Task: structure prediction
Amino acid sequence: MNFWAIQTLNGISFGMLLFLLAAGLSLIYGLMKILNLTHGSYYMLGGYVGLAVMRASGSFVLALLAGSAAVAVLGVVMERFFLRRFHLQELPQTMLTFGFLFIFADLALWVWGGNPQTMAKPPLLAGVTALGSLNYPTYRLFIIAAGVVVALMLWWFQDRTRVGAMLRAGVDDEEIARALGINVSLLFSLVFAMGAFLAALGGVLAGPIMGVYPGADFEVLLLGFVVVIIGGLGSLKGALVGGLLVGLLDNFGKVFFPEFALFTIFLPMALILAVRPTGLFGRE
Amino acid sequence: MTMLTIDDVHTYYGDSYILQGVSLELKPGTVVALLGRNGVGKTTLVRSIMGLTPAARGRILFKGADITRMPTWRIARAGIGLVPQGRRVFRSLTVGEHLQVTARGTGGWTLDRIVNLFPNLGSRMRSPGGKLSGGEQQMLAAARALVGNPDLLLMDEPTEGLAPLMVRDLGQAIASLKAAGTSILLVEQQLAFALRHADLVYIMSKGRIVHRCTPAELSADTETKSRYLGV
Ligand SMILES: Nc1ncnc2c1ncn2[C@@H]1O[C@H](COP(=O)(O)OP(=O)(O)OP(=O)(O)O)[C@@H](O)[C@H]1O
Ligand SMILES: [Mg+2]
Result:
């Protein structure tokens, strides 16, 4: 009994990290039609910056904020000064994000070296919490709670605020949104800032349980794409459901079929695509 | 001063040379109809005015200011409202949200007045745009342009695909807009509808303006009608 509960919670907490990553991937694609291959780098860089801030200041909260904010600025710079020149030109944009993926990977290797590093858990969250008869690591519960809070905030932003409605208008029909006076270019920057912020937040949050290491960028990018393909590109609900699903599949796959771990993710993905080519919550 | 001056505008889609020197004037408070067969470039002119497909040569002045190469959203905020061909309502936004995201400035177009003008919309405030009927979508496309309080309204074939009853309602709305002093550029294929509402008519053919006259003159001119409009 405890085994199942623990593994399920492990899968959900990892799924929440994937949701943080996929939310931005999905938002960016929905509004700008860009497949952002740099998204995994945001996650990794968030982890490294968070780690540095954590070591310098000892404050986990500061590490979370600084890591996410620094990477958000990076995302905006990428969008404003590079991607914007190639608006709606898929190939140049994808190549550009591909290039940034390598640049950031090399930079990280150069600055932080090739060895995996771990971040200390904040003391307050370092212990275990009793859930009935089950003792479960508090830090993982914290990740789940953080994911829920972010999901609620994103939902509120998209569905209940004027800027959120403008964003949906831009996703539905970018030209007409512009022609009705909405500054869609500003929304582009906002979405990149949000997407990069959330991915980096995931990277910092992952630090204490998964570590920060070279190659994390590729690894989570791959999983992030699986999430948005399953959930449906452009849908936040899809990012959440897809994230949890992939988190659980990945976790149970590693537990039961350690040699075929990726298979347990890609087979369900293929099945879902066969039935719903646009993913669970995708359009058309 | 004129509301809109289009001065020898040339526009391309890639290599296709579509607008080949279009000039047109619209005086404040008037309704100008732009007529012409399918594919002559009417929508392209609307897109050039809005900066969606900017003119390669020529100038477009709005209330005396050059808007030829302004970004689209600034042109809209300068005071031009677009009712696009095919309606193009935002399918995931409710009617209420449509009216919220485009509301801007002060010019008297309050929500109450909009609902008065388009009573059907009042009861559908919470419905997403994608779930409305064609007629309701057309009303919404007009309403969301109006809440921006534009000085000039561009309406691109607003009667396209509407049932006769809806066309009548739309005609009433245009009449009250006109009475309120709104300037309108009305692109139309339905000749009778255009003649009923316009003060002045321009006819376009193959990317050029080929005729300019009053509605009364056009009614009587069977040759021009059959040559350029096929009626
Ligand atoms: N995006 C585009 N790329 C290339 N050519 C286009 C594009 N849009 C329109 N055209 C061409 O430009 C010409 C003018 O089209 P436009 O839509 O302006 O005509 P229109 O007068 O509005 O016609 P309709 O009455 O059918 O709406 C047509 O020959 C059309 O095929
Ligand atoms: Mg047209």
